[in-house]
């Protein structure tokens, strides 16, 4: 499945609280770096088995001066059990070290505000934002590690944004 190429300025993150970060995080403050935004829920099996370990690996492999890895806990179901206290235990248990924002709940409906702004279909979802703050890729579901690493490397290597990154997270698959 091809990734969805984008080229619009990334919407602001609508976060009620940041964990693993002393200060709030804004995408404007991260300009000049590529941003990997990983949207997840604690009860999402693919997030636990693939998405979160992949985000940790990306943070480990790429310099923080080049790539900012951010988690977004976006709860659109099971609201009663996925509260901040449970998330803090989850973060400690899974040794998540990157900043994690708690997506702001909607006043009506179940889809949180950042999830709505990015038109995310569910979790896990991954968004790549280039150095200029433009959304360059968005994908719902599991992303191949090699395809993600290649795309991150390509975005880091760009001096100036060149439009949609193109390609596919599932490169080489039938």
Question: What's the arrangement of secondary structure elements?
Answer:
Blueprint: E1 4-5, E2 15-19, E3 34-40, H1 45-61, E4 67-73, H2 84-93, E5 100-103, H3 113-117, E6 125-129, E7 135-140, H4 145-157
Parallel strand pairs: 3-4, 4-5
Antiparallel strand pairs: 1-7, 2-5, 3-6, 6-7
CATH architecture designation? 3-Layer(aba) Sandwich
CATH overall fold name: Glutaredoxin
Distance between the termini: 9 Å
Helix share bin: 25-40%
List the helices and strands in order: EEEHEHEHEEH
Summarize the main sheet. 7 strands, mixed
CATH class descriptor name: Alpha Beta
Q: CATH superfamily name? A: Glutaredoxin
Lateral strand order in the biggest sheet: 1-7-6-3-4-5-2
The average pLDDT score comes to 88
Structural Rg: 15 Å
Q: What structural class should be given to the helix and strand makeup? A: alpha/beta
According to DSSP, the number of beta strands is 7
The outline comes out as globular
Our count of helices gives: 4
Report the β-strand fraction as a percent range: 15-25%
Number of domains: 1
The poorly predicted ranges are 170-174
């Amino acid at each position: 499945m091809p990734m969805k190429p984008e080229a619009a300025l990334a919407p602001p993150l609508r976060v009620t609280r940041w964990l693993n970060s002393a200060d709030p995080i804004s995408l404007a403050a991260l300009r000049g770096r590529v941003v990997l935004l990983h949207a997840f829920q604690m009860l999402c099996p693919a997030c636990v088995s693939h998405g979160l370990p992949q985000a940790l690996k990306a943070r480990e492999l790429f310099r923080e001066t080049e790539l900012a890895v951010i988690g977004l806990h976006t709860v659109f179901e099971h609201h009663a059990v996925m509260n901040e206290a449970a998330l803090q235990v989850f973060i400690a248990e899974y040794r998540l070290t990157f900043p994690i924002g708690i997506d702001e709940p909607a006043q009506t409906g179940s889809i949180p505000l950042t999830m709505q702004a990015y038109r995310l279909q569910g979790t896990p979802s991954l968004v790549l934002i280039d150095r200029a703050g433009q959304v360059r890729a968005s994908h719902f579901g599991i992303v191949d590690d090699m395809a993600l690493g290649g795309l991150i490397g390509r975005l880091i290597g760009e001096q100036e944004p060149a439009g949609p990154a193109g390609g596919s997270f599932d490169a080489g698959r039938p």
